[in-house]
Amino acid sequence: MERLFTYLQYPFVRYALIVGVLIALCSSLLGVTLVLKRFSFIGDGLSHVAFGGIAIAGVLNVSNDMLVVLPVTVISAVLLLRTGQNKKIRGDAAIAMISVAALAFGYLLMNMFPTSSNLSGDVCSTLFGSTSILTLSIREVWLCIVLAAAVLAMYVLYYNRIFAVTFDESFAQACGTKADRYNLLIAVITAVIIVLAMNLVGSLLCSALIIFPALSAMRLYHSFRNVTIASAVLGVVSALAGLILAILTDLPVGSAIVAVQVLVFGICCILEKHI
Amino acid sequence: MKRIRMILFALICTCLITMNGACRKTTVQNVSIPENNGSGVDVDLTDLSGNMVYAQVYDMVTSPEKYRRKTVKMRGLFATRTDEKTGELQYGCVIQDALACCAQGIQFIPAEEMRYPDDFPAMGDEITVTGEFDFTMDGNVINCILKGAETE
Amino acid sequence: MTKTKKETLLDVKDVSLGYEDGAIIEHLSFTVQAGDYLCIVGENGSGKTTLMKTLLGLQEPLAGTIERSAALKDNAIGWLPQQTVVQRDFPASVREIVLSGCLNRTGRYPFYRKEEKERADRAMARLGITHLKDRCYRELSGGQQQRVLLARALCAAEQVLLLDEPVTGLDPKVSMELYEMIRQLNRSGITIIMISHDIASAVQEATHILHIGQNIFFGTKEAYTNSRMGKYFLGTEESGE
């Protein structure tokens, strides 16, 4: 405990905790909608696209890779989350296609145009998060705070519409709600959150941040509002616990957080049987 | 329900504002690096967990002004490198991250005369280095060094 | 007996429905008056759901016009769609689902006001599901879930209800109860338009029948029962084929 207190004196530890909590909060809120719309693998798909975006940014020698990564990921999110209406390519097949293609081309580009001496290190760190969360600059922390605040504000304001569009999109549309617009909003917010979450757990584990808190909450609660709140709480608590565990020991950050989330899910399953 | 929503929103805003204040405070003051037990070492990395060491070294390498003239003690793996321009053999202490896929190192200059390879451990062996932190700028590249280093 | 002229709510004139590859229905014309109970029947694939989607404004007709009365604005039709797999397992309380029918009334305001909550409470009371309001939707029986969705449709609009095969998958007793509920709603002044596979029940409940398929028939149920088409389809059913 004392050790943790000492560690909290370090600014990069405080930054990590702030950003970790905000990312976990946004991911778990959105996770409820994505899981219910059967888009659980969107986290994986979009994070691979973001990986591809990072590769492109490196090749083009863009100083701030967010300028490339964010737009590319947002566009992919919009395309993927709307293919539900496309009869030729169903949702899950589209996600799988874009996901592996982005990963393959990203790695190919990085190999053909290497921008750093430690290529495998860079790739590994992007895929697994490595210690990226502990090496954030103050500017990155601010960016994260601003984006997270925007996401939260929009979620709260459009909560009822997001619920209507998640439960029954055609009904909402028949009543005059512009379902397309809210689907677009959900897609954009998802993309932003994925790009931020890559810093926390890396590309490969992004899905976990989205799906585990939502699934755990659904085991225990019966109204959409309670599921949403529980998902947010569980997401934040497991991210904090995982982060602190990793900081105090030698465990990798991303895997520690996901391991805690799986544990929490297991506990919720057991509680469900006994309540 | 409306009340709960308002409370939640207020809580979130308060958290954001508090954190904002905390961050602002940090950037204004000089970063306070926790002092150790007066053993003469300002930054003792041997006492930290793996992830913390990596993060701390990253901080030292990217914001070296904060650490100038501080005594740093670190434990890592021994490595050598030949300077392309001068042909000089340089010694370094390398830290790897938890997944062992990324590494960073800091060069050290021994205090006493040491002969390579007899007085040094083998490449990749563990080494503890205590020295005074300093850095030089070579264009845009920052070179960090531990001067007057004692090794174990 | 004084006959008050009933208001025409919907006037469908010479409409063709379908998709880009072709029309499923052509030259369809019928009217719906206030207080009617219209059943739309026909074989599978005859275009009943397409017609419903067009009436709701989710699809444009390929040709022809659909005139709505001034009293019936675009979003004043309550809809009871067929349930999707996703919905059966949805973690939401009954109250949340019924309230979502009031969404079009909130305008730009992000939250539900007192009026909308009271409206939802009234709809639940009307359908006899107030005691279920905090229950989880996925724990309810098929019949109860249909009542919840019907309450939601009532929240959306109180003049016209469009029901898409409401008793599919329900056992006979529950079906009868649901038909009784719909009958009561019609008696209280709500216009009902119902798609049904069950021609026998349709003829029993409705005031008007619209039969679409190879031949189109629109008229009162008496006219249908006496028509050649009606006799054919009802006769088929009676002989147990």
Short précis:
The complex is a heterotrimer of chains A (275), B (152) and C (241). By secondary structure, chain B is of the alpha/beta class.
What does this structure look like?
The complex is a heterotrimer of chains A (275), B (152) and C (241). Chain A has helices at residues 2-7, 11-36, 42-59, 66-82, 91-112, 119-128, 138-157, 159-167, 169-174, 179-201, 206-220, 224-248, 253-274. With 275 residues, chain A is mostly helical. Chain A has a single domain, classed as ABC transporter involved in vitamin B12 uptake, BtuC, CATH 1.10.3470.10. In chain A, 56% of the residues are buried. With 152 residues, chain B is of the alpha/beta class. Chain B folds into two domains: 1-30; 43-151, OB fold (Dihydrolipoamide Acetyltransferase, E2P) (Beta Barrel), CATH 2.40.50. Helices cover 26% and strands 36% of the residues of chain B. Chain B has a five-stranded mixed barrel with strand order 2-3-4-6-5. The radius of gyration of chain B is 20 Å and the shape is globular. By secondary structure, chain C is an alpha/beta fold. Chain C folds into two domains: 1-76 and 159-241, Rossmann fold (3-Layer(aba) Sandwich), CATH 3.40.50.300; 84-158, no CATH class. Chain C is built from nine helices and nine strands. In chain C, β8 and β9 form a beta hairpin. In chain C, α4 (114-126) packs across α5. The mean pLDDT of chain C is 85. Classes of the chains: A mainly alpha (275), B alpha/beta (152), C alpha/beta (241). Chains in contact: A-B, A-C.
